Amino acid sequence: MLLSSIVKSYKKVRVLCVGDVMLDHFLYGKVERISPEAPVPVFNFQSEKRMLGGAGNVVANLHSLGCAADLICFIGDDAAGREVRLLLEAVCENPLPVVVPGFPTIEKTRVIAGNNHLLRIDNERRFDGTADLCGFLGPELDERVKAADIVLLSDYAKGMLSPERCRRLIEACRSARRPVIIDPKGDDYSKYARATVVKPNLREFNQATGMDCRPTEPGFREKLCVGAKKLFEKHGIENLLVTLSEHGMAFVSAKNPDEVFQLPTEAREVFDVSGAGDTSLAAFGASLAAGADIQDAMKLANVASGVAVGKLGTSCVTGEEILDALSRRRSSSGPGWKQKRKIVSRREAAEVAAQCREQGRKVGFTNGCFDLLHQGHLHSLMQARQECDVLMVGLNTDASIKRLKGPERPIQDEKTRALLLASLEFVDYVVMFDDDTALPLVDAIRPDLILKEGYTIDRWPEAQFVESYGGRAVTLSRLEGYSTTSTIRRMKG
Hints:
Elements: H1 3-8, E1 14-19, E2 21-34, E3 41-54, H2 55-65, E4 68-75, H3 79-91, E5 96-99, E6 107-113, E7 116-123, H4 139-147, E8 150-154, H5 163-175, E9 180-183, E10 197-198, H6 202-209, H7 220-235, E11 239-243, E12 249-253, E13 256-263, H8 276-289, H9 294-308, H10 319-330, H11 337-340, E14 343-344, H12 346-358, E15 363-368, H13 375-386, E16 390-396, H14 398-405, H15 414-422, E17 429-433, H16 439-445, E18 449-453, H17 461-468, E19 472-476, H18 484-491
Parallel strand pairs: 1-4, 1-8, 2-6, 4-5, 8-9, 9-10, 10-11, 14-17, 15-16, 15-18, 16-17, 18-19
Antiparallel strand pairs: 2-3, 6-7, 11-12, 12-13
């Protein structure tokens, strides 16, 4: 089954998620000085964002992928709980947030300056000792399980997924013949007995098995199998999917406990790992429900988590982003594959720019044909990068260059030109555009700065537009004696 076909089938999938929900609260700003009152940084607040975290982030990702998703969770009778309820209604068809009297909704507030986490403030109490509130473990649970194609348990050890509730959920799934995938917490895997797949990270796996598996050391796979057999024999778990951080993920099945299927990581550039495990769980579960085998589901989960860590903050991944990543992957053979990861679509560039703005990072934009990359280009690009935190370069496609410069141009095709630009350390992203001007692309990205050599504002519509919303236009100095036209002329003799 083609990976792209699996992604396109997400819209036919219905998923039930059960687990610990939380409200993720992000405070963004800058730190430019130390307080005179105490040796602590002064945080200058700029913006904030609230979103679903934990199991809530799993269902938000399922919704973003195109699936129909629902969540059973615990919340408190408070403002944060009411906000969680509203956020769930936007991504679920029929969520069941159960209000637990006397407990606060779990809320995590992160203080972020630039791309650095300064502080996290947690407001939580474990939901220990709570009874079967609202009777959701009775007939309603059985009906919800039967209506789903797959069930995901997202355990953050906050008390929602107690051993008794886990066993009841797994029993309901087995009775309805629905796969149950578990993202575990802690070292007591008896609560996950007879699950279809348990998905620990490597630290959790080592903790649960008493092993010391390290992907970089000899004998890693053999040790992984030894640990997996312990869990298979003791708890009747059918499969283990172990995530290995920057080393990808590894799968072991109780049917073939001496074999390991391992995949490398798919991350382009790591900005933030927050929520990447939730994204991986969502994509893995959605893929299995869409008819993928374990290996293909792993591949898509790996791609999805690679996209997620390239974003800032707890972020959702769309099916379109996975398809884009798969497209880049197919065209990324050869020595330039790492550089090709910096070549992004217009939509991706706009999303990155929006995330950078939330973090207080300045996005710069310049554009051109860059037909024969020469020292004059390098001089301008280096100047541009010094003015901003992230430099995006708009690149004319072959078709747009022919319209602008005639049928004999470009000399080099757009893929070659894009790869050469992406190979430069001072270029962060390359975005191709087919329009006669860069204005539509600038409108999509909304950079903080636009930079170019040789243009005055009255002859520069893109700069006028950037200044209209409060951005800044910078005219770069030209390095004389270098131009593509003169280089072509010399080549022709």
